[in-house]
Design brief:
The chain is built from 10 helices and 2 strands; from the N terminus they run ααααααααβααβ. With 173 residues, it is an all-alpha fold.
């Protein structure tokens, strides 16, 4: 957990595979602890072809069966099929906007928000209006398991918002 926080969480992330991985992991995390997902991260990477959107988009019924039999990952049919559908959505967006990365970050009209210097844990939101809009856009494009809370967690993860507290060494306020 500390390494993920120190090296990744809240740090601006780019690249379609990186962003697709973060989206998939946030979707799988819904209803579970983040520690569970991080513990299984390497297994997820192996199971989902390194989160290469083109490879995952090509998955079929045999792959779904294989994934449901993989004890190293979260074996949830709805989340597995959503990840495959979301890979197809990533590719569709990439064809439209040159890359999923460019499309996602183009939605941010200002530098990432930073918490105020007197912020406490209770000031960290679970969701914001931007996450609601982005979630709706993704769902309209056929993405699944991308509710506003999952989308906000993605935004935190990839540095679109900076929710490090003032007591954290990563705080940039």
């Amino acid at each position: 957990m500390a390494a993920y926080h120190d090296d990744e969480w809240g740090v601006p992330a780019h690249g379609d595979e990186v962003l697709f991985e973060r989206l998939a992991l946030e979707s799988f995390q819904a209803g579970l602890s983040w520690a569970t997902i991080l513990h299984k991260r390497d297994a997820f990477r192996r199971a989902f072809s390194g989160f290469d959107p083109a490879a995952v988009a090509a998955f079929g019924d045999a792959d779904v069966a294989r994934l449901l039999g993989d004890a190293g990952i979260v074996r949830n049919t709805a989340k597995i099929t959503a990840t495959i559908a979301n890979a197809r959505g990533v590719l569709d967006i990439a064809r439209e906007a040159d890359s999923f990365d460019a499309w996602l970050w183009s939605h941010l009209d200002a530098p990432p928000r930073v918490l105020p210097a007197d912020a406490t844990r209770s000031d960290v939101p679970d969701v914001d209006p931007f996450a609601h809009r982005l979630s709706r856009d993704l769902r309209d494009r056929g993405f699944r398991f991308v509710g506003p809370t999952v989308v906000y967690a993605l935004m935190q993860s990839v540095g679109m918002v900076d929710d490090h507290l003032p007591s954290c060494w990563r705080y940039r306020g």
